[in-house]
Amino acid sequence: MAVKEKQADGMSMINSHIENNSFSRVYLMGGDEAYLVRQYKDKLIDALCDRNDSMNYMAYKGEKAVAEDIREFAMTMPFFADRRVILVEDSEFFNKGNDGVEEFIQEIPETTVIVFVETNIDKRLKLYKLVQKEGTVVLFDTPGEATLLKWVKSLFTREEMNIDDEAVYGLVRGVGTDMNTLYNESMKLICYCMEKDRVTMDCVEKLCVNQVESKIFDMMDALSQRNAEKTMRLYDDLLKLREPAMRVLFLITRQFNILLKIKFAVEVGVQNSGIAGFAKIPPFTVKKYMEQCKGYTYKQLIHCVEMCQQADGSIKSGRMKDGLAVEMLIMELLNNSQICRKML
């Protein structure tokens, strides 16, 4: 029986169980990243059994997942196989609780493995704690940006296709962090660029969806150039994507904080090669950020960050509606002469 890891990386944990052929009697898989949940569910089930073996493999989903049926199948000895395997998906047992499952979870024989895959999980429930004690809980969250960049690049490497680092970052920035969407957009790019030597940023811009963070970055370009028409058009695009005003404000504030760090780094003499590490951004984005920095003095950037904070305070205190506060902030950021006067 597998040793129960605590706070371990989900991918490493499942891989370890498979490599060592040492499995828990019960698994609970879930988390925010649906792509990883699906991938590692399939990987685990395929390592445990042959899905075509109806004598030893059974899958239950949604309302068809009944505690008595699961228990009956689980308690029966395997027929000419090492184990019986049960897959239970979206049963709501870990959201609403289930006395029947709680009763037999500790009695699962060594010859049976039950894999629960749930969208809604309440960690306060007794059933969750029982699985944590008796088996393995694996919750997959969306990886950080650095991991996503490596993963996206690996998709192209696997297909023996070269992709520029700038294009990898542009894809993640443009599409967002959902791995299902990133995978689909990567496959689209691979098909589109099949006859090309490599995938470039130009290919990404032509083919891939331009989502929220990409529009924010473009809006920051327009802001730095004081291009009011383009800035407001991009903001309108964000509203059409039903992006909450508070999320837009957060992203604008984050971008100005990055610009402020880069401007400070330049003024204190940090070399270009060290700016990426100082500002905690990918190296191939430094040039683009440096271009945006040229539109501001260091003091102006400080004031821009302060205005973002003031807008946030106005919304949270109830003095102003979020949409109106963000629109007024953008108009004020566009008016460079007004910023200068306020700093005098």
What would the keywords be for this entry?
344 residues; Helicase, Ruva Protein, domain 3; Zinc Finger, Delta Prime, domain 3; 3 domains; five-stranded parallel beta sheet; two-stranded parallel sheet; disordered C terminus
Write a brief structural summary.
This protein has 344 residues and is an alpha/beta fold. The protein has helices at 10-20, 34-48, 67-74, 93-96, 99-104, 126-134, 145-158, 165-175, 179-192, 201-207, 212-224, 228-240, 245-267, 272-279, 286-293, 298-316, 322-334, 336-343; strands spanning 26-30, 57-61, 84-89, 112-117, 136-139, 162-163, 198-199.
Verbal overview:
This protein is α/β, with parallel strands linked by helices. It has three domains: 10-139, Rossmann fold (3-Layer(aba) Sandwich); 145-207, Helicase, Ruva Protein, domain 3 (Orthogonal Bundle), CATH 1.10.8; 212-343, Zinc Finger, Delta Prime, domain 3 (Up-down Bundle). The protein has 18 helices and seven strands. The strands form two sheets. Strands 2-3-4-1-5 form a five-stranded parallel sheet, sandwiched between helices. β2, α3 (67-74) and β3 (84-89) form a beta-alpha-beta unit. α7 (145-158) runs parallel beside α9, α8 (165-175) packs parallel to α10 and α16 (298-316) packs antiparallel against α17. The chain is elongated, with a radius of gyration of 26 Å. Residues 1-8 and 337-344 have low confidence and may be disordered.
